C-alpha cells in the first residue's frame, strides 16, 4: 500500500493567548512512500517525527494537507478505520493478560463482516506470534518476558489485524544495545516477509540507516532530504544532514574558496599571497607547525565561486600521505582492529578533535607531532557558510 503525504502541516496553537508561540511541528511535508518499503523518519528530538507518524495513524489531525493510503483519502478517517498497526516505544502491553490475550485483543473489537470466531482469533494470534518468534511464550504474562520479547508481543499485536500500514515509534529505545541490534534485524525481516509498508521513527541515525529502504531526514518540522541511506550519506544536501549521518561524525572546518581552490582556515587568517606562493607554502608544509599554516590549499574545487564555506570531511576521507596538504597536530592513535582511528587537532576545525579512520596497514608515526593526509575528493563536502547548503564541485 503506497502512502501519500500531500503538503502535510501541523501547527500546535499557542497555549498562552497573549503570546504568539505556536509551534509548526510539521511544515509542508510532501512525499509518496512506495508500496512495501520500510521508511526511516529520522531527526533530532522535536523535529516533528512523531507528529508526522500520529497524523498518518489518525491520532493527530493535520492543520492542512492530505494523507492517502493507495487512492483512499484517509485524512478525516478515525484511527480504527485506517487499517494501521502502531507500536510505541513503551510496548503498552496489558499486564494482567497473557501474551495470547494481548495479541488477540485488537481482534475482539472487530464488528460486522470483520467479526471473527474465537478459533479464528486464536489462529490469527498464533500466526502473528510465529512471525515474531514468540509462539512458545503465549501463556506467559508480560512481566515474565524480557524487554525484547515484550516488544515482539507489541509488534505481533500490531500485525494481527493485518494492517495496511505499520507504524513504529522509536520501538527499540527501551532495549539494551545487543537486543536493539537483534530486534532491528527482526523488524527488517518481518517487514520483508509481510511486505507491509512500514514507517519507522527514530533519532538514531545508525538504526535508521541500517534497516530503511529510504530515510527521511527532518529538522524543525521541515524535511531536509529523502533518499536511500547510502545515497544520503554520500550526497548530503546541506550541513545539517552531513552532520546528522555517520559514526564517527563528519569533521567540519571553516574555510574559503578562492580561484577554485579550497583552503582550510578562517577568511580573516587568509595570507596575502598569490596562488603560486600558496603552492610553495604547501610543498614545504611539513616543515611548519599547523597553526602557522593558514591558507593551505587542501583540494581543487572547480565550479565553486569564491566565498566563505564550511568544509565537511568524512573520517574515511583521509589518506595518510607525508606530502598531503591537510596537516594536523597528532593527539593519539586508537587501534580498532581492521582500521585505526587517528585523533588529531586542527585550527580550522569546529570541534575539539578531528578523527580520521584509516587502514591499519597505514604507516603513521604515533610519536610524531603532526600528521599529513591527502583527501579523497568524494568524501569532502563544501557548504555555503551563510545558507549551509551544499556547493557542488567537479570531482576529477
Ligand atoms: P522526540 O524524538 O523527542 O519524540 P519528535 O521529532 O518526535 O521528537 P514531535 O513530538 O513530533 O517531535 O514534536 C515536534 C514539535 O511539536 C516539538 O517542538 C514539540 O514540542 C511540539 N509538540 C508536540 N506535541 C505537541 C502538543 N500536543 N502541543 C504543543 N506542541 C507540541
What does this structure look like?
The chain is of the alpha+beta class. The protein is built from nine helices and 21 strands. The strands form four sheets. A six-stranded mixed beta sheet has the order 6-7-8-3-9-10, with helices on both faces. Helix 2 (99-108) crosses helix 3. The longest helix is centred in the middle third of the chain and has 18 residues, at 177-194. The two termini are 42 Å apart. Residues 266-294 have low confidence and may be disordered. The structure holds adenosine-5'-triphosphate.
In short:
The protein is α+β, with helices and mostly antiparallel strands. It has helices spanning 49-57, 99-108, 118-131, 147-159, 177-194, 205-211, 229-234, 239-244, 275-283; strands at 3-12, 23-33, 38-42, 64-69, 72-73, 84-87, 165-169, 197-202, 214-219, 222-227, 251-258, 261-264, 297-300, 307-313, 318-320, 326-335, 339-345, 354-359, 370-375, 380-384, 390-391. The chain has 2 domains: 3-244, Rossmann fold (3-Layer(aba) Sandwich); 251-391, no CATH class.
Amino acid at each position: 500500500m503506497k502512502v501519500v503525504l500531500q503538503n502535510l502541516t501541523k501547527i500546535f496553537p499557542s497555549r498562552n493567548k497573549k503570546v504568539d508561540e505556536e509551534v509548526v511541528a510539521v511544515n509542508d511535508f510532501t512525499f509518496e512512500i512506495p508500496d512495501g518499503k520500510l521508511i526511516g523518519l529520522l531527526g533530532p528530538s522535536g523535529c516533528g517525527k512523531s507528529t508526522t507518524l500520529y497524523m498518518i495513524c489518525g491520532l493527530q489531525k493535520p492543520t492542512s494537507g492530505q494523507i492517502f493510503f493507495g487512492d483512499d483519502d484517509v485524512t478525516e478517517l478515525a484511527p480504527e478505520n485506517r487499517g494501521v498497526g502502531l507500536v510505541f516505544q513503551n510496548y503498552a502491553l496489558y499486564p494482567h493478560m497473557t501474551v495470547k490475550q494481548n495479541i488477540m485483543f485488537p481482534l475482539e473489537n472487530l464488528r460486522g463482516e470483520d467479526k471473527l470466531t474465537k478459533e479464528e482469533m486464536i489462529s490469527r494470534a498464533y500466526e502473528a506470534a510465529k512471525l515474531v518468534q514468540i509462539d512458545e511464550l503465549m501463556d506467559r504474562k508480560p512481566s515474565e518476558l524480557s524487554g525484547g520479547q515484550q516488544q515482539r508481543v507489541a509488534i505481533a499485536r500490531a500485525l494481527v489485524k493485518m494492517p495496511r500500514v505499520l507504524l513504529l515509534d522509536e520501538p527499540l529505545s527501551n532495549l539494551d544495545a545487543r537486543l536493539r541490534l537483534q530486534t532491528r534485524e527482526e523488524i527488517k525481516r518481518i517487514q520483508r516477509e509481510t511486505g507491509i509498508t512500514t514507517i519507522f521513527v527514530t533519532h538514531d541515525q545508525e538504526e535508521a540507516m541500517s534497516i530503511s529502504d529510504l530515510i527521511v531526514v527532518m529538522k524543525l518540522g521541515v524535511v531536509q532530504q529523502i533518499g536511500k541511506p547510502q545515497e544520503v550519506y554520500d550526497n548530503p544536501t546541506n550541513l545539517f544532514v552531513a552532520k546528522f549521518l555517520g559514526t564517527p561524525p563528519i569533521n567540519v572546518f571553516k574555510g574559503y574558496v578562492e580561484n577554485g581552490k579550497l583552503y582550510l582556515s578562517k577568511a580573516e587568517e587568509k595570507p596575502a599571497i598569490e596562488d603560486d606562493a600558496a603552492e610553495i607554502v604547501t610543498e614545504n608544509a611539513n616543515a611548519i607547525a599547523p597553526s602557522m599554516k593558514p591558507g593551505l590549499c587542501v583540494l581543487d574545487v572547480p565550479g565553486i565561486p569564491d566565498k566563505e564555506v564550511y568544509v565537511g570531511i568524512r573520517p574515511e576521507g583521509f589518506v595518510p600521505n607525508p606530502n598531503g596538504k591537510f596537516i594536523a597536530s597528532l593527539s593519539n592513535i586508537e587501534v580498532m582492529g581492521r582500521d585505526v582511528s587517528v585523533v588529531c587537532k586542527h585550527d580550522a576545525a569546529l570541534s575539539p578533535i578531528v578523527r580520521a579512520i584509516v587502514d591499519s596497514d597505514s604507516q603513521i608515526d604515533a610519536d610524531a607531532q603532526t600528521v599529513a593526509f591527502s583527501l579523497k575528493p568524494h568524501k569532502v563536502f563544501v557548504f555555503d557558510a551563510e545558507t549551509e547548503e551544499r556547493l557542488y564541485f567537479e570531482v576529477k
